[in-house]
Amino acid sequence: MMMKLAGALLLMFLVVHGVECQLQVGFYSGSCGLAEFVVKTAVRQAFINDRGVAAGLLRMHFHDCFVRLIDSTSSNTAEKDSPPNNPSLRGFEVIDAAKSRLEGICGGVVSCADILAFAARDSVELSGRLGYDVPSGRRDGTTSLSSEASSNLPPPTSNVGQLTQIFANKGLSQAEMVTLSGGHTIGRSHCSSVAPRLYNFNGTGQDPTLDAAYATALKQQCPQGNSNANLVVPMDAISPAVLDEGYYVDVFSNRGMFTSDQTLMTNAATAAQVGQNAGNRMLWSAKFAAAMVKMGQIGVLTGSSGEIRANCRVVNS
């Protein structure tokens, strides 16, 4: 039922708005018919070994839509090595595996941008039992600047106004911002991103909007003065590997992990959406599918623009 509802809403979205930027579902049907199957296989194999990889791939797609993810060079620090991305992004090896297999089947045909879009969709399906079609035909960019990550990606300290503006800059509405925020229901955060709300919020100690019991649990997992940069905490303590409405239940109960999560309750419109999504998983899932498709069309290159990378980590020589 959930998948049918999502599919119906997605179809309506595509009919009303059109698939922009020359992207189309089934783009590789004639040139590399196994493209989506190869990506799905790589994602499934990785998911079996580590269910947390789904969150990594979903987040990577979000970040690649807002910026561009390639490796740094001796003369340039790329987005993936900027503070918002490093060391939190993960799952690059899954994209590498899929790309390697596809290059052996149909070299120079399937872009890394499309592989990442497919992998995010497959991650959503594996972790949330929610499927949707991905319009494809993207080409890969050739530049990546660390500074763009800091200026384009919303930090965890963002308030609702800042979030709304950042998403609006990319052509996404406030409602779509709330919908896509639900992706925080899976995955993990480094304690360094959580600690300011626990120990030094506006220089006064603990954030007063944080549920007391939740704050205590977070402090146990992220002790003050911790020097382990790799210490992490699950975004959703109840179902950290399941894409569901748990994010909204937590935010509604003052258990949003970041300021950028809890801030959704400070605005009447976004708070109403939080409450609605918390009580209706099917509705949120359908909106999430449509928002993912729209987000996947941000700033894409098509036609003769960009390139098809032979290696997803570097531009072609």
TrEMBL record:
The record marks 59 as: Transition state stabilizer. Ca(2+) 2 binds at residues 185, 236, 244. The keyword Membrane does not apply. Its EC number is 1.11.1.7. Residues 130-160 are annotated as: Disordered. Residues 1-21 form the signal peptide. Substrate binds at residue 154. Its main location: secreted. Binds 2 calcium ions per subunit. Its cofactor is Ca(2+); heme b. It is an enzyme of class 1 (oxidoreductase). Residues 22-316 form the Plant heme peroxidase family profile domain. It catalyses: 2 a phenolic donor + H2O2 = 2 a phenolic radical donor + 2 H2O. The active site is at 63 (proton acceptor). Removal of H(2)O(2), oxidation of toxic reductants, biosynthesis and degradation of lignin, suberization, auxin catabolism, response to environmental stresses such as wounding, pathogen attack and oxidative stress. These functions might be dependent on each isozyme/isoform in each plant tissue. This is Peroxidase.
